[in-house]
Design a protein that fits this description.
Elements: H1 2-32, E1 34-50, E2 56-62, E3 69-79, E4 82-93, E5 98-99, E6 111-118, E7 121-129, H2 131-138, H3 150-156, E8 176-184, E9 191-199, E10 209-219, E11 222-231, H4 240-245, E12 252-265, E13 270-282, E14 286-300, E15 303-315, E16 321-332, E17 337-348, E18 354-364
Antiparallel strand pairs: 1-2, 1-3, 1-18, 3-4, 4-5, 4-6, 6-7, 7-8, 8-9, 9-10, 10-11, 11-12, 12-13, 13-14, 14-15, 15-16, 16-17, 17-18
């Protein structure tokens, strides 16, 4: 019984400390005209997954439709239209209680930044979500699903990601950049823009950098985006060469990505379309990948049907095509909670096909 008592006392101490911190936050917020908000979501699904050229496995896993995460954000009014802001957000795996979106991920792996909002735009610095990721999720029916979204698989689950299939397709650099600074413009009648720059933070690596530029436009039923992203290091300066060699290619110097996205909502059906061009520069030669995605959401009862198809073709490189199709249904139980069912088929040239299917529940707080 002693270990149980000890754990209970430790839990009580932690709860008391957390309650004290929350009380201080509320008190300080009131005096400084600031606010702090706790929020997040938990998403779990049950099903079966088989990667191309791999074996299937039954799963109880997280992030079926959206990755589970929690966050704290706050703002302090500085007067004259200026605000100091911060955001700290971390993914977690509810199926096993570990932090991060995957093993080895950082604690605040979704966002970690501080900045200033003003009438002239917002400047933030820290660990930031990339503009390419935002464009990718806004213009496909399955949003940010890393389990069922064909576009997310073609964009982020490719080059150097999964050893179960061999591919030279995909975007390097991930969905968040460390050591980054971003400027986001005000909204001008539905039009906004942003630019981001990230450093290698390593002595002697002045050429190690990432940068992007994006526009977003929302007007009534129509929406559009365009984004350009350049990366000449992935997770750390100088690591693109090993990434390319892992799939049997020569030394890789940099990657450039351009993506366009469109959507149009007719109420009884919403259309999505995306085109992405990826250029991979090597020490000698290069290769490129063309990717297109089309999809729809259709209201059906209280919920909606989602369908999407993505196609990628590389030029030279490994001489591959990739075709991925998905269909699903999302049913809202309330404003914060929904249940879903989905199926996805994935196929590479000269490899056995993969598939993922399952049902899940997602709740927000």
């Amino acid at each position: 019984m002693k270990p149980l008592v000890h754990r209970t006392l430790k839990a009580a101490v932690r709860f008391t400390a957390l309650a004290s911190i929350c009380g201080l936050l509320v008190t300080n917020s009131a005096h400084a005209q600031s606010s702090v908000q706790l929020y997040g979501q938990v998403d779990e699904w049950v099903g079966d997954q088989k990667f191309p050229d791999g074996k299937g496995a039954a799963e109880v896993s997280g992030g079926g439709m959206s990755a589970s995460y929690w966050g704290l954000k706050g703002a302090e009014d500085l007067g004259n239209g200026y605000k100091a802001i911060f955001t700290l957000e971390g993914f977690f795996m509810a199926q096993n209680g570990e932090y991060g979106a995957f093993k080895g991920d950082t604690f605040f792996s979704r966002n970690a930044y501080v900045g200033i909002e003003s009438p002239y735009g917002t400047v933030t610095a820290g660990y930031l979500t990339t503009s390419l990721f935002v464009s990718s999720i806004l213009f496909n029916p399955f949003d940010d699903s890393y389990e069922f979204s064909p576009m997310m698989w073609h964009t982020y689950l490719g080059l150097g990601t999964f050893p179960t299939y061999n591919t030279d397709m995909g975007v390097v650099g991930g969905s968040d950049w460390a050591n980054a600074v971003e400027y986001s413009s005000p909204n001008f009648n539905g039009l906004s823009a942003n630019v981001m720059y990230a450093l290698g933070n390593t002595a002697g690596e002045n050429g190690a950098k990432k940068w992007s530029a994006q526009f977003l436009y929302f007007h009534g039923a129509f929406a559009a985006t365009g984004v350009y992203q350049y990366v000449n290091f992935n997770d750390a300066p100088g690591d693109l060469t090993s990434l390319a060699q892992s799939v049997g290619l020569a030394s890789m110097k940099s990657q450039s990505v351009a993506q366009l996205g469109l959507s149009y909502d007719l109420k009884y059906v919403k259309f999505f379309g995306q085109y992405m061009y990826t250029y991979n520069a090597q020490d000698i030669g290069s290769w490129h990948v063309n990717t297109a995605q089309g999809g729809v959401t259709v209201p059906a009862g209280p919920g909606s049907i989602m369908a999407s198809f993505a196609y990628s073709r590389d030029g030279s490189g490994l001489d591959q095509t990739r075709q991925t199709a998905a269909i699903g249904y999302d049913y809202p139980l309330s404003k914060r909670t929904d249940v879903y069912a989905a199926y996805m088929y994935d196929h590479f040239t000269s490899q056995t096909s993969g598939q993922t299917y399952g049902v899940g529940i997602r709740t927000k707080f």
